[in-house]
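2024-03-11 09:14:02 DEBUG pipeline.ingest accepted 1 chain
2024-03-11 09:14:02 DEBUG pipeline.ingest length=643
2024-03-11 09:14:03 DEBUG pipeline.predict start
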Amino acid sequence: MLSNLTKFHQFLLALLILLGALFFQQRVILNGDVYEYTVMSVALASHLSPDIQSEDLRKVQHLLPQYAPYFKTTEEGIRAGKQQPNGGFYRALDDNTYSIHFFSYSALAAIPLFVFEKIGIDPFKSFWFVNLVFIFVLGVSLYRFFASARKAFLGLVLFMLSGGVNYAKWSSPECMSSAAVLSAMLLFVTDAPLAGGLLIGLAATQNPPIVCLLMFGPLLFWSTSYQSQLSFKDNLRLALHRRMLIGIGAGFALFLIPVGFNLWMFGVPNIIAKIAASPALISLGRLQSFYFDWNQGLIIGIPGLWIGSAVLLWRSRGLAGNKWKLPAVALICITCALALAIPALATTNWNSAAHGMMRYASWGGAPFLFLFLFLLRQQTRLPFILLLCVGLLQLRCTIDARHYSELGLSPMGKFMLENAPAWYNPDPEIFIERTGLPDGAPLDVGKLYAYEVNGERKKLMFHESSTSIDRELCGPGKLISPDTQFGKANFGWFYINGAVQCDKADELSLADFQKNASQFSTGWSYFEDNGTVAQGEWNGIWSDGPSSVMDIAVSPARPVHGVRILVHYFKNNERTRVVINGEDIGWVDLRSKDVLRLKMHAGQAISNLKIELTHEAPHDPRKDPDFPTTRRLAVFVHGIRLS
């Protein structure tokens, strides 16, 4: 009977048997946004509505007694009429309470949850079931892409070793999203754009950045199916055919469903963007963290795919017809990955629950797996040695990911902090939570954070606004030496890597400024004494104008090696151009703890320091009428330290 089946049907049967065995053998892992997705599924299965009712919360407390305190607090918050009863739940305009995450993933799990509960299977294995369904869809897409059962299974193995194993059993939509993204890319290049568009639209209902993949569908088809005998215009017309446009439209229509729901219920296009994200958090530092953080970046999740793709690109450079085609596909995949990553950088909870690479990276890295699979398809024979090396490296990453959580250090993260701290300056949230503090611990700008090994401080972190860091680390009358290794983190945080070196220092404050007022004769306002406000950090003088000059008298018997100017910036000012005794230091963020080291005059006996400051964005009363001052404020100097 099996001999009468086509190879494709044999593949489907084998895949179903394998996934069925996994379903019954493995248990679901309640992780991720477990509170929201579980109770939403119960609500949808009970009353076909995503609004969270007291009966839903009581039922989940019974099914998941380990989480009963959380759900009880949520129920009490709802009864008290709180706007945000607990964590990820929010009161809507209709006075009902909903999860801040959309309910499409929970809706997919609701039917199997209802059935499983009736037949005695753990109802929350419904999430495991849904994830396996998307892995099945991925298997079908891989077979369509390779036209080979062996290569399709190879693709599935690589998917599982590239984050699939880490998130497949989670009760959150990471596996669904990553499988849908990869499937959609495969379907776009095999001319099945409607299925691809629908998968992207569905995944984007849970992770909105995924919607940007819709514009990459035609690009992928165009670059992978380009016909050199046709003109550029004709190739473009083939890529933008009617079915492609329908697929893009269908995917976008799916994506708009949660947008409409959020507008209806919360009055905003996305409630998460309102209460749990901020565009101000998007930065190059976070982008670097997304890809290269040694605890949760893509570098610890898919290094084998990166190396393997680079090798295959190099090997294929001389093949006929591949001179530009493969680099073009690679460039599109990299751009696609960036488009997925950048919106995710806005999340406020950067160090969220994870196994290995962060959850956003699990689906944000799918374009790199697609690239590797596409390059494999171009080979006349499978490169066995390369595949073995890639597979072993990915297996190592997968095994490592099982042994630490978001509150612990990865093997590579631990190695880097202990042996090469200057080469790893993680996001501040990652640093404090993975070196001992609990999830969600607030960052205190007045506190010094340390990573210690056997009592030895390997790495210190402090905020630029701290004025006590020198005294805390070096004692009174001393300054952290410019020879100390500094590293920059995000959002005004800095690292000290390795041993702290200290120099003797002279500190000038408001009292010294007032004694020598003539030193502030050009480009300054008046002296201000605000007492003990902010530990005296607002006792000093504002600049007034596009530039300012300080003439600081120093003792010739005390050679000056470096200067640190203690400042606060006004509004849009973030840096200052500094010239000291004719030596152009350049544009500097004076809030950093870096000492402005004097190269031309270091160690020389000089009696005066002429410090010229050019300001980046002085206040303009005409452009900012809401701020009632005619002074052209830019920088507030509250101290000068000489070392």
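2024-03-11 09:14:41 DEBUG pipeline.report The longest helix spans residues 242-266.
2024-03-11 09:14:41 DEBUG pipeline.predict end
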